Amino acid sequence: MKEKLLFVTKGGDDCDNGFPYILELAKTLNAGIAMLMVYNKKVMSAYEDVMAAVAFAEAGDLETVKQLIQSQEKEIKEASDKKIRGMYEKCSENSVPFTHQIIADDAIKAIKNFLKDRPGIDMVLLSPNLYAGKKGIDLKELLRNITKPIVSISKLAGAKA
């Protein structure tokens, strides 16, 4: 059985947002899951890291700036690897084929290139973490570039007591 569902997410601690939905859908459809994890290696998300990097850069200590950036990249990769192992295990427990690819690129460009190489994908499912922040994915642009059905998974709202 080939992958039929493409799960697109950003790397990091919340890369598995929406995965339980996709796993249930894959079981229902008797389909496999291909996960595309997209992230920008150059992003420094923590304000303190940015300020520290600026201070070291102004002082001419470029080696420390490089170490700060590499440290953050390592943390993101470790968190992502742990989540990927968890997703793989859940798929194995449910007899759902699972493959993944990690890429540092623009999300829309990465999805388009991934689909070009894998025509067996029937549906693209977007993790809620792709909408976080100002640099979230542009759905209108995605719809102009992708001809497959696209499902945008929303974050569950917390229940109020």
If you had to describe this structure to a student in words, what would you say it looks like?
- Strands 3-2-1-4-5 form a five-stranded parallel sheet, with helices on both faces.
- The protein is of the alpha/beta class.
- α2 runs antiparallel to α3.
- It has one domain: HUPs (Rossmann fold, 3-Layer(aba) Sandwich).
- The protein has helices spanning 19-29, 47-58, 62-93, 107-117, 139-145; strands spanning 3-10, 32-38, 98-103, 123-126, 150-152.
- 27% of the residues are buried.
- It is 45% helix and 17% strand.
- It has five helices and five strands, in the order βαβααβαβαβ.
Helicity range of the residues?
Answer: 40-55%
Give the DSSP E fraction (strand runs of 2 or more residues). Answer: 15-25%
Element string (H = helix, E = strand): EHEHHEHEHE
Major sheet characteristics: 5 strands, parallel
CATH architecture: 3-Layer(aba) Sandwich
Examine the coordinates and then state which fold CATH places here, giving the name of the CATH topology.
Rossmann fold
* Protein structure class: alpha/beta
- Please tally the helical runs, counting DSSP H or I stretches of 4 or more residues: 5
Average the pLDDT over all residues and give the rounded result.
Answer: 81
Number of E-type strands: 5
* Amino- and carboxy-terminal Cα gap: 44 Å
Oligomer: single chain
Radius of gyration: 18 Å
CATH class membership: Alpha Beta
**Overall shape:** globular
Spatial sequence of strands, sheet with the most strands = 3-2-1-4-5
Question: What would you give as the CATH superfamily?
Answer: HUPs
Domain count? 1
